[in-house]
Structures are given as C-alpha cells and as structure tokens.
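re: the backbone from monday

yeah here it is again, tokenized this time
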C-alpha cells in the first residue's frame, strides 16, 4: 500500500472526497431550507473523521500491524457509524443512503448520510477518489439509498404455491382418511397424522443412539458460531468488535475470541467435522450390513441407484429452502442494510447460480478455484462436500467386499495424503490457527497478506475436508467387523478410563489449546506450529468423538459414561435429531431476518447475545418442525413412491429380530446431518421406501410400496 506523501496531500484528498460525496452535488441534492440541511447533517455520520482515519491507515505499515493503529481498526471493520436512519426518515423529502467500503474484498466500514429523495450519489466518482487515495489497495464503494423492495416474480409465486400446497394437502389427506376412509398411495405420502407419527416414533434397542445427541449438540454449536459471526461479517453489527475479536492485544483477554469461554464459539467449526464423520460411518456400516452377500460388481452396479436415491431425498427440500431464502425471506426485510447481505448470499440465487447448488458443486465456486465469488446460500457448501464424498462410497465398498484390508489401506492412504497436503499448503500460505481471526482480515505475522486464503483455499474444498469422513468410514469397518472385540476390550476399566482421559484431553486441546494464541491479531505461533494445528486438529477431534461413541456403543464408561450415554440417547434429542437437516438450511432465514433489519450498531454483552441465540434456536426448532412435517416428509414420501414405481419389484425380506442400530422413525437410516436416509434396504437399492432414501438423516418417510429389484 503506497503511503500518502505529505500532510497537504492528505488534506486535499480528504477535502476532494468529502466534496464529491456531500458538498459538490447537483442542484437536486441541495436542501431547500437551512433547517432541513441541519437536520440532514445531524442524521448523517461524521464522514470527514472516518475518511481521515482511512487516510491515516494508508500511512500505517500493515507488515508491522501497529498496536491500536488506525489500520487495525480499518481491517477489523470497526469504522462503522451509520448516522440516524430514523432521524433522516423524519425529514420531509429526505432519504437515508448507506455506504459500504469494501477493502481487500472484505467490508472495511459502513456509514450513512441523509440526502433529498431526488438525489442519488455517484458511486463511480467516489470509487475514483478512493483509487487516488489508496492507489495500490482494492477498495470498492457501494451505495444504497432507501429500502430495497423485492418483487414477488415467478420464483416468489412458485415458492408461495409450494408453501401453501403441501400443508393443505397434508390436512386434506388426513381428513379424507379419518372422515371418509378414503386413501391412496399418493395421499398416504401427505397424511399429516402419519407423518407426525413417524416423527414421534423412535428406534428401540439400537447401540448407536448416542449419535442422535451428537447431531443435536453439533447443530446447536453450528448455530452458535453462525449467530455470532453473522453480526461480525455484516455491515451493521456490534458497536465495538474489539469486544469480540482482539484486534488490539491490550484487550485480548477481555474479548470473546481471546478468553477461555469464547473458544467455544471458534470451536463450533469442529461440529461440521462431526457431521462429516457420522456420515462416513453410517454410509459404510449400514450399506455393508444390508449387502452382506454383495460382490464388487453388484456393489458398483447399484451405485447409480444409491446416488439417485440420495439426490432425490436431499434435493427437493434443499431447493425449496433456497427458494424460501431467496424469494420469501426478503419480504420480511426492512431498513437500509438488508441489501448488503442479500447481494452476497441470495442475489446469486436470483442470478441463476442455483444450478451450482443443485449439482452440489457450489463449494468450488466459493473457493479459490472459482475465484472466491459469492454463491447461492453460501453455508450450503457442506452439502456439496458431503454429497461428493458419498459418490465414492460404492467404489470403496466394492473394494471392501473383495478385501477389507485393501479398503482400509485405501482409506488410510487418502487420509494421509489429505493431511499431508493440508500441512504443506498451510505452511506455504501461513494459515493461522486463529482461522476466523488472522485469516478473516487478510494479515499474518511477518507481513504476508493472505486475503482470507484459509477459507478460499482450504475450508470449502473436499480434498482437505475429507479426513473426518474417511475416519468415519474406518470406524464403520471397525464396528461392523470387530464389534465383539471392541465390546470385550471396553470391559477393561483401564481401557475405559484411559479412553475417557484421551477424549477429554483431545477435545479440550482442539477447542481450548490455542486460547493464548487468540489474544492478539495476528497470533504469535510460528508457521510450523500453525500448519500442524490446521492440518491435524480436525482428524484428532473426530478420532476422539469415535472413542466417545465407543464408550456409548458398548455401554461402558462407569458413572461418567452412563451420564454421557443417558444424555446423548435421550428421546427428546432423538426426535430433534430428525430436524437438524432442516435446521441447518432454515437458520440463514432467521438470522437474516433478525440481524439485517438493524439500522444501528448494538453493544455486545453476553446477556444480549444469549437472548439472541436462544431466540434463533427456539424459532429454528419450531420452523424446522413445521417444515419437516408439512414439506420434507411429503416430498420424501412422494419421491419414494415415484422411484418405487419405476424400479423393478422384489419380494420383501422377512424382518430381522434385531432392530437396525441406525433406524430413524420407520427404519429410516440416518447419516450425518444431511446424510443417507432410507427405510430398510433402500440405501443400497433393496427397497424403495422411506422416500427412497439417500438423504437427510432426519426425515422419517413412510411410503411402503413395492420394493425394487436390482
């Protein structure tokens, strides 16, 4: 960044920039009276002071990252003063205009000012002035005057029709069945009473019920992390981000990210890895249990059916909730700052990029491979990675039915290659263990600029995120082939308490082990230590999760294990776990509605955030339950019926005495957060029930038509 040469240059640039925005404006931008002009100035943010800070930041050397320097505040997005939106609205013929300055691809500061309704700021002119001010920096200025009004359009009308049609059909099907004893296969897919019964039904006698609790707690922490970061990344958030992120080391221990309790927010990232590893486990374990006599050829032959089942189970609800987010949620908008978020997360959906989501490749466009561009519903990158990983399952299992050792060797090779590649790239690009601190503002110790490369080059890409999934596959083989050995081993108290100790140490180390490094930005770790943490923390986390699961599977662990198993296997969590796929996709609608309608910054306090978080969780649960009952299950049942009609039938097998461990609702197999969901054998193409399958681990679909033969 080239410094401004003299103080006179600074003053001239500030003056010119200020004149372009406020003073040097056409006649239509002049206020007709002095009183209105005064009111407008009182409603506008102190622009001159903010631009002075920006120019001062240009002179700071970001390589040394001065303590408390203006660059620190700029890079942290702390320069935010929105003026008075409501004060401007009270002025006759006044309009509030918000301005966001993006610096190096990230929001640098947000401000606002009041202008006559006939006036429209010239963003091009202001961008030219910024180019003069910071010639070597990537600075973009965006204006928005007034509120954004969204037309319903074809997409909105279709979404509303779907939203109305499915609940109405659910009630009609239930009434026809009860009052008139009229039913059919199609009506059975919609029946409200049956879908509710499926939701309430729990599997009994399964050894793996603890995974329900893991899914619930995992989703709770995902929402916790997103609800905090949503305000940090948005144009209007907290009054002082120093309360959250230690951009100045002096307040490091006082900031949320720099204290012990706050590490739980940053540790929420590991919850996604928990979902990945559960998906890998159940994909291997359930499929091989169902296809004990399969050959490599038959496993590969059935692969297209597995992929189709999974696609049909995932995609209808996924597409519907994207449409709700894109076309319905904006109509709850108010205030001038709503559009800043929608242009990033929902405008790509409106612009036709939803095809990336429907093909489960949107994560590549979010990454550096796709230019790190905004994608449709960005948080759905997880679904893309999980689906792509599932595509390899039939080939892995084809190897497994031929040779278990070969399959295990394949998994270990992939695991080692992924971890090694992550270590090399992390070392080369100086990824930070403070993944949402150093990397989020584009600076690292030593002066190198990373421009958020951790997210772009690592976070979204499946070949770096696959180790938890591969470890889950290994755990599936272990529990399937060596269940008796594991049960016997965990009868030894030394193994039990040793495992408990390892679980505690590893999970605590991953979450809290870098607390000291979080108290300043940038962190003080060297490149080697940072690379080790970035590449090994996630595999270590999920390995500890599987030790914890082993304690629950084997019903050992003494008093500690009993308490853990009792909590994780509680029936309430068993039912909530069916909603977690919906909850993941519903959460951006709720957070947008609550956060993006703000017109002024809010002071952060634990009590305020706690109320905000509880509100999101409760509203999310209620909304997800309604979506699950009225939309997800009817869609899954209908897809299941359609698939059963086009696939050849096979005589159903006699039910086994032992219940399937991973049975959800009516034998609805669940995997991960959004993983394979199928009734009976539908995962591997033996049946076409329960929505036929392969999909969100929490939909307990009910169709019980003919079973296809493969």
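seq for it, each position gets an aa:
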């Amino acid at each position: 960044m080239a410094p401004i040469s003299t103080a006179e240059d600074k003053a001239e640039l500030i003056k010119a920039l200020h004149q372009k925005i406020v003073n040097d404006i056409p006649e239509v931008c002049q206020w007709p009276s002095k009183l209105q002009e005064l009111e407008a100035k009182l409603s506008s943010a102190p622009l001159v002071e903010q631009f002075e800070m920006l120019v001062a930041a240009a002179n700071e050397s970001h390589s040394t990252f001065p303590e408390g320097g203006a660059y620190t505040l700029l890079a942290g997005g702390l320069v935010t003063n929105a003026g008075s939106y409501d004060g401007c609205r009270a002025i006759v013929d006044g309009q509030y205009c918000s301005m966001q300055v993006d610096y190096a691809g990230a929001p640098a500061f947000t401000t606002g000012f009041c202008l006559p309704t006939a006036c429209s700021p010239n963003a091009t002119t202001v961008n030219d002035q910024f180019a003069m001010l910071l010639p070597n920096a990537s600075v973009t200025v965006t204006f928005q005057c007034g509120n954004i009004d969204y037309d319903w359009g074809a997409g909105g009308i279709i979404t509303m029709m779907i939203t109305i049609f499915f609940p109405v059909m659910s009630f009609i099907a239930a009434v026809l069945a009860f009052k008139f004893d009229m039913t059919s296969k199609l009506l059975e897919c919609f029946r409200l009473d049956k879908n509710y019964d499926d939701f309430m039904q729990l599997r009994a006698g399964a050894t793996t019920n603890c995974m329900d609790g893991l899914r619930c707690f995992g989703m709770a922490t995902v929402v916790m992390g997103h609800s905090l970061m949503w305000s940090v990344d948005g144009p209007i958030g907290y009054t002082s981000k120093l309360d959250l992120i230690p951009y100045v080391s002096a307040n490091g221990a006082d900031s949320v990210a720099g204290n012990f309790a706050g590490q739980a927010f940053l540790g929420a990232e590991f919850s996604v890895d928990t979902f990945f590893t559960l998906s890998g486990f159940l994909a291997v374990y359930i499929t091989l249990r169902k296809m004990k006599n399969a050959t490599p050829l038959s496993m590969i032959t059935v692969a297209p059916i597995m992929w189709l089942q999974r696609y049909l189970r995932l995609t209808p609800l996924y597409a519907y909730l994207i449409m709700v987010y894109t076309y319905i949620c904006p109509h709850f908008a108010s205030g001038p700052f709503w559009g800043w978020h929608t242009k990033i997360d929902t405008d790509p959906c409106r612009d036709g990029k939803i095809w990336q989501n429907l093909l489960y490749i949107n994560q590549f466009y979010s990454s550096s491979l796709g230019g790190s561009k905004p994608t449709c519903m960005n948080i759905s990158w997880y679904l893309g990675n999980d689906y792509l990983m599932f595509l390899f399952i039939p080939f892995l299992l084809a190897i497994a039915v031929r040779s278990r050792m070969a399959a295990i060797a394949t998994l270990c090779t992939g695991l080692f290659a992924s971890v090694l590649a992550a270590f090399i790239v992390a070392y080369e690009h100086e990824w930070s263990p403070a993944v949402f601190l150093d990397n989020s503002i584009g600076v690292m110790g030593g002066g190198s600029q990373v421009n958020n490369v951790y997210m772009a080059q690592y976070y979204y890409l499946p070949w770096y995120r696959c180790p938890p999934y591969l470890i889950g596959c290994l755990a599936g083989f272990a529990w399937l082939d060596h269940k008796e050995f594991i049960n016997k081993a965990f009868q030894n108290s030394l193994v039990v308490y040793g495992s408990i100790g390892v679980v505690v140490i590893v999970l605590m180390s991953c979450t809290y082990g870098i607390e000291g490094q979080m108290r300043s930005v940038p962190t003080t770790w060297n490149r080697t230590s940072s690379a080790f943490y970035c590449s090994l923390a996630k595999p270590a986390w999920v390995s500890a999760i599987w030790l914890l699961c082993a304690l629950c599977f084997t019903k050992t662990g003494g008093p500690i294990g009993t308490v853990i198993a009792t909590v994780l296997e509680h029936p309430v969590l068993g039912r909530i776990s069916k909603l977690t796929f919906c909850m993941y996709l519903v959460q951006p609608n709720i957070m947008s509605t609550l956060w993006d309608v703000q017109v002024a910054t809010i002071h952060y306090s634990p009590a305020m955030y706690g109320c905000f978080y509880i509100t999101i969780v409760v509203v999310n649960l209620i909304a997800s339950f309604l979506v699950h009952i009225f939309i997800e299950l009817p869609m899954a049942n209908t897809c299941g019926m359609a698939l059963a009609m086009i696939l050849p039938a096979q005589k159903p097998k006699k039910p086994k005495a032992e219940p399937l461990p991973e049975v959800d609702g009516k034998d609805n197999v669940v995997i991960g957060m959004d993983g394979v969901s199928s009734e009976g054998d539908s995962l591997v193409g033996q049946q076409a029930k329960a929505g036929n399958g392969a999909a969100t681990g929490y939909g307990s679909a009910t169709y019980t038509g003919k079973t296809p033969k493969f």
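Residues 606-646 form the longest helix (41 residues). The two ends are 64 Å apart (CA to CA).
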